[in-house]
Prior knowledge:
34% of the residues lie in helices and 20% in strands. Strands 8, 9, 10, 11, 12, 13, 14, 15, 16, 17 and 18 form an eleven-stranded mixed beta sheet that branches. Strands 1, 2, 3, 4, 5, 6 and 7 form a seven-stranded mixed beta sheet that branches. The chain has two domains: 10-110, Glutamine synthetase, N-terminal domain (Ubiquitin-like (UB roll)), CATH 3.10.20; 128-448, 2-Layer Sandwich (Creatine Kinase, Chain A, domain 2), CATH 3.30.590. The chain has helices at residues 10-13, 24-30, 57-61, 69-72, 121-134, 174-179, 181-193, 219-239, 286-297, 299-306, 312-316, 362-379, 403-412, 414-417, 424-442, 447-453, and strands at 35-41, 47-53, 66-67, 84-88, 94-95, 103-112, 115-116, 138-152, 158-160, 198-203, 209-214, 217-218, 243-245, 259-267, 270-271, 334-335, 343-347, 350-353.
Amino acid sequence: MTSVATPEVLTEQSVPAEAGQISLADIAKAHDVRFLLATFVDMTGKPCAKLVPVEAADELEAGAMGFAGYAAGLIGQKPQDSDLIAVPDLTSFTPVPFIKEGLAIIHCDPHVDGKPWPFAPRVILKNTLGRLAGKGMQAKIGAEVEYFLVNKDPDGSLSTADSRDDSPRPCYDARGVTRMYEHLTSISEAMNGLGWGNYANDHEDAAGQFEQNFNYADALTTADRVVTLRYILNILAEQRGMTATFMPKPFTDRTGTGLHFHLSLWSGAEALFPGDDGERGLGLSELAYSFIGGVLEHAPALQAFLAPTVNSYKRSGATTSSSGATWSPRKASFGGNDRTHMIRVPDEKRIELRSGDGSANPYLAIATAIEAGLDGVAKGTDPGAPSGPGEARPDAHSLPATLLHAVEALRRDPVILASLSGDAEIGKYYADAKEEEFLSWHNQVSDWEIRTYLTSI
């Protein structure tokens, strides 16, 4: 996250300040958009959409676009329940002509029976941000979206899309970036065309792994952008015969894929994290330290949202990689400009939350992290002194070893369990689904088991 001011949303979302005086159909027609992807995500982060012709934009805006919620995915519905109604947020209107001429994405808030659906991730984040606003604060978020470019071979195995990208330590390799020039520049131009402020595109730590950075914004806008960028990356990679994957650990011997969030709290134009912290030396305010304390206190339960898949824990549990580092914290620690900790403090205006991975749903990850931090602020939680370089304090929580451990931590944490729209039943629903996901994997016989046990006795 840079200190560059957030650009006006007019370029990206093409909605003037008087959005309430203009219709979705008018906005679409003004940008030569013929079809709208009315989009929301389920709790796993899967993008769900209907392709709506501009001639039906008024119906979409009026709340006439229904989805069978149970069919859409993990979003708190049963087959007998009322339709999810996709209510578009006009400020999220995003033309994507680089994917298909005349196409735009618009993010929607699912409603049921006329009310925002509390299981819907975007609704959950908006509820958290409403609570934050009630305390006179706003959150600004930057996101680092990492991903692999791969091919799926005939035998089902994965290989790096660039066959020459095979170094054990390829991070920042100029040659790897150059070979992927067409892909990287197409994504960069797309982001800049939307007004996101792409400022860097680099080869990450693993062969086949990349990251493309854009400016920070308010929390909801950044979460929308992460969802949109994943969609753009998937489609443009497919058009070049590749697969863009956000799977946390697609290769056993390589670094995994993170989704790091840079988070700061503001009151209007005033940054609330800078302060005179005396001997701790990070230049943070007491509010910032209490926020950090809350995140660290609830860290085990938060991992159910920051690292929400079975595969996540193959990344966080790795002891090394071909490059020599995993870049994935194993303890709930914080420190200065040190990437070994769960919370890195690169400067006095922000913290970087580093334990999330590429499978995280950005709405849920941001919402639960803010709720954890707010609990710390309310309690005045003291995180203690920062940990030293490369070493967590002895009293730091260990992060969960598996998804099942994360689910158990979530069930034991009443604050995080009730952080989804303020309803513990939604947290229990999510925990049950994630336990089922773990057990579904656990019930499969793996190649490792056959190699290890077939003739062991």
